[in-house]
């Protein structure tokens, strides 16, 4: 992944983040797992941002479209806290089992739910509303997300999407993944139900507020 920010700025943000996450043993274990296997995760800087957004929105119910082994769910769980829930989805049963094992070590009284299968198909059978939906499915399917999300997201809720800049390839999309991300971004900025901004940290994060 080519850094969107300069390497020096990325390192600066990472070092700052370490000062408030020095005791995050579960997060560190998950980051070591990702680094060992070259598994893409949002990283601690974006993770902390997700937690802050969740707390700011006073969210109690979060749906993840694509969860991997649960790294982003860790931060959403911290954001919703006791009495809240995070629903994880993934096509891989082994990744969901890893997520279950990691998140069992997190003692914040959040309820984690695990659903195996295609995220968009699962979303069609889930009852809303949710306060936050996190989108991290295969990039070529990003354009299918907005209409599914708007039916599940409460007014005032957030649709948050990872990899909004896709290594910078959205500037001149040449493959299905880059075209999917670029089309999604255009859709969200013109969608009548959302107000959208992209934060250019890590690989870009789209924050979309459902306004109607």
What labels describe this entry?
Rossmann fold; about 210 residues
Structure, described:
This protein is α/β, with parallel strands linked by helices. The chain has one domain (7-210): Vaccinia Virus protein VP39 (Rossmann fold). Helix content is 42%, strand content 21%. The protein has helices spanning 7-18, 25-37, 43-56, 71-80, 93-103, 119-123, 145-152, 176-190; strands at 61-65, 85-90, 111-116, 130-135, 153-162, 194-199, 205-210. A seven-stranded mixed β-sheet has the order 3-2-1-4-5-7-6, sandwiched between helices. The chain is globular, with a radius of gyration of 16 Å.
Category by helix and strand content: alpha/beta
C-alpha Rg (nearest Å): 16 Å
Q: Tally the helices.
A: 8
Strand-residue proportion: 15-25%
Overall mean pLDDT stands at: 95
Strand order of the largest sheet: 3-2-1-4-5-7-6
Number of strands: 7
- Give, in order, the helices and strands: HHHEHEHEHEHEHEE
Catalogue the unreliable spans. Answer: none
The CATH class is: Alpha Beta
Give the termini distance in whole angstroms: 35 Å
- Return the CATH architecture: 3-Layer(aba) Sandwich
Largest sheet: 7 strands, mixed
By CATH's scheme, which homologous superfamily applies? Vaccinia Virus protein VP39
Helix content: 40-55%
User: How does the overall form come out from the CA principal axes?
Assistant: globular
């Amino acid at each position: 992944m080519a850094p969107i920010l300069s390497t020096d700025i990325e390192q600066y943000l990472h070092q700052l983040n370490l000062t408030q996450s020095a005791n995050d043993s579960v997060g560190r274990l998950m980051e070591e797992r990702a680094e060992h296997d070259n598994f893409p995760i949002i990283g601690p800087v974006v993770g902390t941002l997700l937690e802050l957004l969740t707390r700011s929105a006073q969210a109690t119910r979060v749906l993840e479209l694509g969860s991997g082994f649960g790294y982003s769910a860790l931060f959403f769980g911290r954001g919703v806290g006791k009495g809240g829930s995070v629903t994880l989805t993934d096509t891989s049963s082994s990744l969901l089992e890893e997520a279950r094992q990691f998140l069992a070590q997190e003692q914040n009284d959040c309820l984690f739910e695990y659903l195996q299968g295609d995220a968009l198909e699962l979303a069609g059978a889930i009852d809303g509303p949710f306060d936050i939906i996190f989108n991290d499915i295969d990039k070529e399917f990003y354009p299918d997300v907005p209409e599914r999300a708007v039916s599940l997201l409460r007014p005032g809720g957030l649709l948050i999407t990872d990899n909004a800049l896709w290594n910078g390839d959205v500037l001149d999309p040449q493959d299905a993944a880059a075209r999917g991300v670029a089309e999604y971004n255009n859709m969200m900025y013109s969608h009548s139900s959302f107000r959208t901004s992209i934060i250019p940290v890590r690989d870009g994060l789209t924050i979309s507020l459902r306004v109607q």
